[in-house]
Amino acid sequence: MNDGYLYCISNKSMPGILKIGMTGRTPDIRLKEANSSETWKPPTPYKIEFAKKVNNVKQKEITLHMLLTQYTERIHPKREFFRASLEEVKTFFNLMDGEVWIENISKEEEEDEEEDEDLKTNNVKKGCRDAHQCFTNGQQIRHTIGINKTWIGTYDSSKNGIIYGDKIFQGISPLNQFAKCHYEIEKKDRMLSGINAWRECECEVNGVWISTYNLNPLNSLSIIQSS
Asked: Who has the most CB within 10 Å: 36, 42, 61, 216?
């Protein structure tokens, strides 16, 4: 085999453990195979963290496994699972020449699928996920990294976007764009694939900051208040 993909797969049921391997097919096909197997299937689905198309893929996989075995912990000498951080694995991937694989599904859709699975598992009702239906014009929204790295933006209903400084975050999910940009500037080593902005952000309501995770749509609030 000459051309192929190196991939890094994680599973939230196995925190700190990553599967690093190769495939001659595409990473999403390999992912479907891993998730469809009923043999020792984990309670939550695997997800692709990143992948790269490379030449001489088998030799590069051997080299990658040698590096990971030396600098991280290989769970079993004949299995492809390593106890390592995403940042460590990403560093080794960056040493390999190749083309970074871009998933067909958007990160926002991926996060929504994971969130739906999480909500279903914990029997929690999903909150509002449409910024235009969740926030009022001029409402403040904040995202915090660590203890004191906080961005506070303002929602503009006319543009359906969050304004912070000279930037405006719009698109399918302004909240995700807002949080991702914060990480890109304040914490560049953070892997962006695992961000769930609705879980991480807060909005101000009557002088109190509340989580954006389980917000009710504005129209349902008006119905409740008028009844």
From this structure: 61
Report the SS3 class of residue 36: helix
Q: What SS3 state is found at 58?
A: helix
Q: Cα–Cα distance between 70 and 7 in angstroms, integer?
A: 19
Lookup result for tokens 């999403």: 28
Burial code of 177-201, b = ≥16 C-beta within 10 A, e = fewer? bbbbbbbeeeeeebbebebbbbebb
What is 178-210 written as a DSSP string? HHHHHHHHH-TTS-GGG--HHHH-EEEETTEEE
Q: Is pLDDT at 20 greater than 80 in this prediction?
A: yes
Angstrom distance (rounded) from CA 117 to CA 52: 27
Q: What is the C-alpha radius of gyration for the chain, rounded to an integer number of angstroms? A: 20
Residues of the chain by 3-state class (helix, strand, coil), percent to 5: 35, 25, 40
- Rounded CA-CA distance 183/192 in Å is 8
Taking the C-alpha atoms of residue 140 and residue 84, their distance in angstroms, rounded to an integer, is 38
Q: Are the CB atoms for 190 and 183 separated by under 8 Å?
A: yes
pLDDT in tens, 131-181: 999 999 999 999 998 878 999 999 999 999 999 999 999 988 899 999 989
